[in-house]
């Protein structure tokens, strides 16, 4: 879609912070900000019939993406979708069981099964995602930037090999250690699919992208670099770098990845997402001016009182300190039982308390 069909951006605070440019206050958004904690989201999902039907319905996917922006002064919207759309498009049969999370009817566990996988053509096989991106971008009308996203190759691989969620990743790690060449084959086809997928999102209207490496922290020190980080760096290198006359920043988020920040900062990404186990100020000292940082309030803080939420927000802001290059976020996704008014308390605290850290 030509750039001229999209409205000019009115609030670019998020993109400026990602570029470590001056801002008037710290921008804020939440991972899973469109989700089950909102009653209006639950109503839209009930109307859709199922989670994947909601993802595939352009009108409803657009509606739930915008819902949190109607409630809160957020600085970015994030596409409503799922990290497992790529393996679903590969024919693995994604489905969801209540209380058990995602599952695949046809997991891949052998060299032959993995060798049969092909790079996903996202504009053909995941056109419903691109339709949603374009619709959301038009509906935003320049209000805030739109973030696209994907799961990381390693994270996608864990679900594809295990057949669903796992606590110990026994099958996936057995494959990694016993047949590393087969695991690399799987990660290569996934990395190339993610490049295709995120570039399709950018062409459809995404103004920044995030790679969710949910399970990278489950790897050993060296295995993380070999089987997760190098593939995320490959993706960043293959991404479209500019759209609408602006850079398109990429954010890497490895849950449990605090020990690899320096290596992650060398990936070519614009920013690193941090979970709540890493001190933000220490992380800033370690990466210097190489990347912006995003995070990193413990999502469980949102179960506390609004007063305590405000004090914890203040502590995160103080930890990063003065200057740009910080995007306020949770250290993981907001959880379903959070009171929406507690999310408001966090966001409003960022809006009120952060200007003192900016000139």
Task: Write up this protein.
The protein has 359 residues and is α/β, with parallel strands linked by helices. The protein has a single domain, classed as TIM Barrel (Alpha-Beta Barrel), CATH 3.20.20. It is 47% helix and 13% strand. The protein is built from 16 helices and 11 strands. It has helices at 13-18, 39-48, 51-56, 58-71, 85-89, 111-115, 122-125, 127-140, 153-162, 170-178, 180-204, 221-238, 261-265, 280-287, 306-320, 340-353, and strands at residues 77-78, 94-97, 101-104, 146-151, 208-213, 242-243, 246-247, 250-254, 271-273, 292-297, 326-330. The strands form 3 sheets. Strands 1-4-5-8-9-10-11 form a 7-stranded parallel β-sheet. The protein is globular, with a radius of gyration of 19 Å. The mean pLDDT is 96.
Summarize the structure.
The chain has helices at residues 13-18, 39-48, 51-56, 58-71, 85-89, 111-115, 122-125, 127-140, 153-162, 170-178, 180-204, 221-238, 261-265, 280-287, 306-320, 340-353; strands spanning 77-78, 94-97, 101-104, 146-151, 208-213, 242-243, 246-247, 250-254, 271-273, 292-297, 326-330. By secondary structure, the protein is of the alpha/beta class.
């Amino acid at each position: 879609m030509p750039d001229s069909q999209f409205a000019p951006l009115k609030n670019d605070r998020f993109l400026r912070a990602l570029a470590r440019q001056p801002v008037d206050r710290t921008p804020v958004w939440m991972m899973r900000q469109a989700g089950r904690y909102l009653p209006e989201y639950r109503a839209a999902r009930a109307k859709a019939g199922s989670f994947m039907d909601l993802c595939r319905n352009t009108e409803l996917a657009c509606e739930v993406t915008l819902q949190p922006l109607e409630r809160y002064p957020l600085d970015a919207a994030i596409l409503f979708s799922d990290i497992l759309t790529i393996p679903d498009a590969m024919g693995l049969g994604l489905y969801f069981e209540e209380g058990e999370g995602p599952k695949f009817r046809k997991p891949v566990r052998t060299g032959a099964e993995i060798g049969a996988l092909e790079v996903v053509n996202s504009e053909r096989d995941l056109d419903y995602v691109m339709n949603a991106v374009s619709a959301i971008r038009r509906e935003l009308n320049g209000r805030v930037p739109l973030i696209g996203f994907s799961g990381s190759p390693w994270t996608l691989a864990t679900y594809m090999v295990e057949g669903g969620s796992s606590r110990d990743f026994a099958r996936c790690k057995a494959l990694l250690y016993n047949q590393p060449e087969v695991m690399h084959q799987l990660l290569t086809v996934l990395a190339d699919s993610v490049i295709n997928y995120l570039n399709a999102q950018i062409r459809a209207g995404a103004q920044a992208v995030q790679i969710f490496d949910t399970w990278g922290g489950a790897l050993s020190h060296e295995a993380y670099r070999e089987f997760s980080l190098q593939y995320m760096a490959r993706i960043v290198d293959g991404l479209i770098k500019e759209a609408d006359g602006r850079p398109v920043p990429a954010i890497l988020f490895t849950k449990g990845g605090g020990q690899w920040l320096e290596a992650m900062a060398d990936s070519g990404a614009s920013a690193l997402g941090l979970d709540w186990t890493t001190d933000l100020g220490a992380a800033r000292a370690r990466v210097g001016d190489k990347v912006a940082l995003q995070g990193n309030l413990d999502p469980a803080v949102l179960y506390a009182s609004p007063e305590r939420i405000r004090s914890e927000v203040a502590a995160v802001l103080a930890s990063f300190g003065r200057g740009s290059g910080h995007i306020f976020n949770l250290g993981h996704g907001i959880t379903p039982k959070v009171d929406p008014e507690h999310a408001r308390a966090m966001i409003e605290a960022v809006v009120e308390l952060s200007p003192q850290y900016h000139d």
